[in-house]
Structures are given as structure tokens and as C-alpha cells.
Specification:
single chain, four-stranded mixed beta sheet, binds 2-acetamido-2-deoxy-beta-D-glucopyranose
Length: 370
């Protein structure tokens, strides 16, 4: 306990002779009462409390509040203690009166928590960025000049998700004066962390008497850069790709990676021109383009290679057109043949008929002539 030995002299308050702290009785029946019963005050800010020295109608002659700072004003057996600017970290005003029968002081102490939100909260990652996928990193949050440290909570964030609340190593010390402290949290980076914001937050939780909501100081946000090897963004057909002749061919091996990966395609034949994009494209495929296509994707973190097996089928349309042409051609040939033979038959037939008619006439006249 820290009691004040400097008396604040207020004319209304009866002056007490100096006494030793041990003569202060904290268990007396009619104890002085503070309103509020507990104070939470920010360093440098004003505050005040009222002490009702004893029950209304009581008869005490000597009473006071002891404290190094502030002013007192009495009204009957009530004393108001006012501080324009809190300049102490450790302060416990004591309100008392003299108990004539036992010749002791009946005392009450006002518990005061003096706080100070952090001067500065800074966030960093160790070792330095860019991170590499799958590696362990230490997130660090440095909180400067905060009091009291036992009420401090530091939370690490990944985007909007809280990652953890490491405990202060100074928590047990119960230090009322401002301290600076470094909090750390270990993480293993993933490729999903790339482009995500990391940061920390320091909060002073001072209880129901404290400021609502509790004071919070956030660090600056750090956008993580994570380097990782290429990963395919597309699903690769497991089987052979069968494609008709003259149709377009599109092979896609789009991948994500940081730094952005580069692509190298190896087509099966020299006739097919190579490509260095994520998509391989042939406008009209021919039998020469059949075979194994390899897509090689790489960046400084690693590489992958993907194979596409392409089979080219003869075009059915050509077959059908060929067939139709053949059928038409056949029909024309047959038609022409039929026409020619019929024409010949008709001419032949007419001649024969004429012949027959003539023959018949001759035959009929012959008997008449005979
Ligand atoms: C966090 O990582 C650092 C450096 O790798 C290591 O020294 C420290 O012990 C780790 N802390 C915890 C809590 O795992
Ligand atoms: C290739 O795949 C990527 C990822 O799925 C997609 O964004 C892109 O449009 C595709 N390209 C083509 C030409 O299909």
C-alpha cells in the first residue's frame, strides 16, 4: 500500500496530527466509504471520488483524505477528492476518521488503476519477406509504453481471422508503470497466405469500471508475399484426347505460382510450331499433329510437367461427302448406261417393227398373190 504523507490542507477539514500508517484500522465497524468504490483512470486525465466518512448522523471530529495529488472539498462528513491531471502510476487515497474510543484511525483505501493505451504497436515478420511456402515464420508484435501490462491482450490476425493471443511474459510482475513488450507467434506459411494481410492488435481490458469499449491500438497491416512452386489450375484429362481431323485443338495447362510461372510446350512433331503460353492451340488439326504434347511449367520455386496424349481421327464428313459423291456418280453412270441401252433398244425395236410390218404386209400379200 502507498499512503500519502502530504496533507492537503483544506480549511473545512480538521487537521490531524501526524500518525503512523500501522495505526490505521481497516476492520472498524463504520468504515468510510468511497464512491465509486474503484477508479480506473487514464494517465494525464482528470478524476474524482467522494468519501462518506461515516454513517449519516455520526459524530466524528477528525477526518481527512490522504493523497499526494488533488484537491479536497468537504461538505459535512463527505469529502470530494478531485484530480485535474493524473500524474501518478501508483496511488491509493486513504479516507479516515479518528476513532476516539480506541484512539485509532478508521480507514478505507480507494483502489485506483492508472492506465495508458500503447504509445505504438508495430508488426513484423521474421525472417523477412517474401515468405516461402511451408516454412516457419515468427510473427512479432511490439507494444510500446503500455500500462498496466497485466491488463494487456495482444491478438494476431490473418485477414479477419484471429490466429492467437500469446501471453505476456511480464504478466506475473504486476508492473503498474508503462512497459514495452514483444509478443510472438509462430506460423507455417501456405500458398493461400499470399496477398493476405497480417497484423496485430493490443487491447487493454480494464474491467467494468474501465472505459467501454476497451482501448484498442492496431498495428499497420502487412500484406504477405509467399513464393510457391506452380500448381495446376485446370484438371488434366487422364485419357487420350481423341479429336477429328480439321477440328481445333486446345490444351490448357494454366497454373498458379509465385513468381508467375513460365510455360514451355513440346509438341510431338516438328511441323507443329511450339508455344510458350499457358494454352496450346491448333486451328485445324491434321494427322501430323498426333502424339504426345508436354507442357513444362516452372518458376524459381519448382516445376511441373503435364502430358497430353492426342489421337487424330479421320474426318467422317469427308467420308460422307465422298460416299455421297460416289453414290451420285454411280447413279449418273447407271442412268447414262440405262439411257443409252434403252435408246438403242428403242431404235432397234422401231426398226424391227417396221420390218415386221413390212414383212407382215409382204407375207399377207404373198398369199393373195399366190
Ligand atoms: C518460434 O520460432 C522461433 C524461430 O524458429 C523459435 O526460436 C521459437 O522457439 C519458436 N517458438 C515457439 C513457441 O514455437
Ligand atoms: C485455361 O484454364 C484457365 C483456368 O481454369 C482458364 O481461366 C482459362 O480461361 C482457360 N483458357 C482456355 C483458352 O480455355
Amino acid at each position: 500500500m502507498f499512503f500519502c504523507y502530504i496533507f492537503v490542507v483544506v480549511s473545512l477539514i480538521n487537521f490531524l496530527p501526524d500518525f503512523h500508517v500501522s495505526s490505521c484500522d481497516h476492520n472498524c465497524a463504520d468504515k468510510p466509504r468511497f464512491t465509486p468504490s474503484r477508479l480506473v483512470v487514464q494517465f494525464g486525465k482528470p478524476t474524482s471520488a467522494l468519501c462518506s466518512v461515516c454513517q449519516p448522523g455520526c459524530n466524528v471530529t477528525l477526518f481527512n483524505i490522504e493523497c499526494p495529488i488533488g484537491t479536497l472539498a468537504a461538505n459535512g462528513t463527505e469529502i470530494t477528492w478531485t484530480v485535474n491531471k493524473m500524474t501518478e502510476w501508483i496511488i491509493s487515497p486513504s479516507c479516515y476518521y479518528n476513532n476516539d474510543t480506541t484512539d485509532t484511525h478508521c480507514c478505507s483505501v480507494l483502489p485506483i488503476t492508472v492506465y495508458k493505451p500503447p504509445e505504438n504497436v508495430s508488426f513484423s515478420v521474421h525472417p523477412d519477406e517474401p515468405m516461402s511456402e511451408g516454412q516457419q515464420y515468427t510473427l512479432q508484435c511490439e507494444v510500446r509504453d503500455v500500462a498496466p501490462v497485466k491488463n494487456l491482450t495482444v491478438t494476431f490476425y490473418r485477414g479477419r481471422i484471429a490466429l492467437g493471443e500469446p501471453k505476456s511474459s511480464k504478466r506475473e510482475k504486476d508492473e503498474p508503470k508503462p512497459v514495452s513488450e514483444v509478443f510472438t507467434l509462430n506460423i507455417t506459411s501456405t500458398k493461400e497466405d499470399d496477398g493476405v494481410q497480417f497484423w496485430c492488435e493490443a487491447k487493454l481490458e480494464l474491467g467494468a469500471e474501465g472505459p467501454q469499449p476497451p482501448p484498442v491500438v492496431e498495428s499497420e497491416k502487412l500484406t504477405a508475399a509467399v513464393h510457391y512452386k506452380p500448381h495446376l489450375e485446370v484438371s488434366i484429362p487422364p485419357d487420350t484426347i481423341i479429336i477429328r481431323e480439321e477440328n481445333p485443338l486446345t490444351l490448357n495447362c494454366s497454373s498458379v505460382g509465385n513468381p508467375p510461372p513460365s510455360y514451355t510446350w513440346t509438341p510431338p512433331s516438328r511441323i507443329t510450331s511450339p508455344s510458350n503460353g499457358s494454352v496450346f492451340f491448333i486451328n485445324s488439326i491434321t494427322h501430323e499433329d498426333e502424339g504426345l504434347y508436354t507442357c513444362y511449367v516452372s518458376n524459381e520455386k519448382g516445376s511441373i510437367s503435364v502430358q497430353f496424349d492426342v489421337t487424330v481421327q479421320a474426318n467422317n464428313l469427308i467420308l460422307i461427302i465422298g460416299l455421297v459423291v460416289a453414290v451420285v456418280l454411280l447413279a449418273v453412270i447407271v442412268g447414262v448406261a440405262v439411257f443409252i441401252s434403252y435408246h438403242r433398244y428403242y431404235k432397234e425395236g422401231a426398226y424391227n417393227l417396221w420390218d415386221r410390218i413390212r414383212l407382215h404386209t409382204t407375207h399377207s400379200s404373198i398369199p393373195t398373190a399366190e
